[in-house]
Design brief:
The complex is a heterodimer.
Chain A (H helix, E strand, L loop, with lengths): L2 E4 L4 E4 L4 E3 L1 E4 L5 E7 L5 E7 L5 E4 L2 E4 L9 E3 L8 E8 L3 E3 L3 E6 L1
Parallel strand pairs in A: 2-12
Antiparallel strand pairs in A: 1-4, 3-9, 5-6, 5-10, 7-8, 8-9, 10-11, 10-12
Chain B lengths: L3 E4 L2 E4 L4 E8 L5 E7 L6 E7 L2 E5 L6 E7 L2 E7 L7 E8 L11 E2 L3 E5 L1
Parallel strand pairs in B: 2-11
Antiparallel strand pairs in B: 1-3, 3-8, 4-5, 4-9, 5-6, 7-8, 9-10, 9-11
The chains are: A mainly beta, B mainly beta.
Chain lengths: 109, 116
Amino acid sequence: GNSVTQMEGPVTLSEEAFLTINCTYTATGYPSLFWYVQYPGEGLQLLLKATKADDKGSNKGFEATYRKETTSFHLEKGSVQVSDSAVYFCAVNDYKLSFGAGTTVTVRA
Amino acid sequence: ETGVTQTPRHLVMGMTNKKSLKCEQHLGHNAMYWYKQSAKKPLELMFVYSLEERVENNSVPSRFSPECPNSSHLFLHLHTLQPEDSALYLCASSQGIAGKANYGYTFGSGTRLTVV
């Protein structure tokens, strides 16, 4: 079955720092890949997605590129803000949507 | 109203109570899901419904009983719960299930359940 391994947190950064959260997956076939974000007290929101190799998903300054050769989908943002403080989940959808354990990110002013 | 709506947002119940969680989606999706999110644990998929039929039940105890009367509504009936069942219960929907849900899942805000 599918599985997702993402960088363990928590991650604490200062505003305007560069953020990377690593995500690797195992799956059969050609899965779609997603990053979800969960703000405090909320459900999960789709942040970005990529449906085939070499696709780049982007939203709100975040980017992730579907790397089939390394089975990775790392999330990056060049300059984080306090409002980016949240839990980030990598997910792979092949047979079913499988989530990573989540990475808690805290951005300090 | 759009998106996925869950009610109530918060619920406190005793171990002998019976309660229900409600989820409603206004997106025209044909699949719905229940997830459990406990502190310091990965998201756990509990149930999957496609076209109102249950297609997956991940070894969930019988004290949790799902119901999907139509493609827009999903319930989770709760009875004789244990304190370890306290968690955030998330509902989600998608157009297509499994590998065909290339647009991902849309989640509700969840119901924070506390069992006392």
